[in-house]
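Tutorial handout. Part one gives the primary structure; part two gives the three-dimensional structure as tokens.
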Amino acid sequence: MKKLFEFVVPKEELVKETETSTNDKGEEVTTSKEVKKKVDKKYFLRKPTRKLFDQAELFYGVQLSEGIKAGLLTRALLQKRFSNDGGTLGEKEREEWATLYSDIFDKQVEIQRLALLDDRSPEEEAKFLNSKEFLKDARVRIQEFEMQQSSLYDQTAENRARNKTILWWVLHLGHYINNDAEEKPFFGDGEYEDRILIYDRLEEEEDEYVAECINKFFYYVSFWYVSKTSDPEQFKDLIKFAEQQDLEEQGNTDVDIEEPKQDDPVVEEEVENKPVGEDPFEDVTEEAPENQE
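Part two.
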């Protein structure tokens, strides 16, 4: 079976260990005991086939139709309603956000200017630190604002169908390798209805290890669904980049501005555009990942 992505989840198990020693008579004595150890269990996402893509597209269409029949608005209709009502922001709020973005630009310019100074005065140092603090607070405000704006479209027919389709992919792509090195589907064989029953049963059991495995399946499948790539190496690089970004964001609470050394010339470098890890559950255009034959 072709694999899209492989990962491990450590599990604490009783492992039998044997020790060989020599007794007083010079005889070899073998003793065994069971000890608790963390063992890496292997899991993987199978590479989607053309047949799976066809089935997923049909499933998405059915779920979208069901949502519309149940009374959910489509994203286009919801955007039209917001537009007819004057948008999601009032006039005062639009002015506040325009001012904030303008101030952010000014503060960034100020930080860059002060960072180039060899010896800052106390007033300049205070201005430098205040500007960094302003950018940190502004970044938090912008993130909260974008989350609020995104949440306005949570209850659309497309969003419901997308989340249902991601679950469908999880149930069909999630696999594991057992102790006999056999590749097995994590949620069993059969149709969607059979697999969802197993999924519901596993959730009801509330096993922490199983829950961790399911969460990882959801994370990687959602990331794949958003990235729209079925190339294993490219997908692996995207995951690695996204995880590095997450670690950097967790470790950096301040806006870091690297100050050039006094003896080093300031060189302008062309920044290469790289993909940025996205929140897998952020609302995105409802396109299926690139179909692979």
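Part three, for discussion. Residues 253-288 have pLDDT under 50 and may be disordered. Residues 45-251 form one domain.
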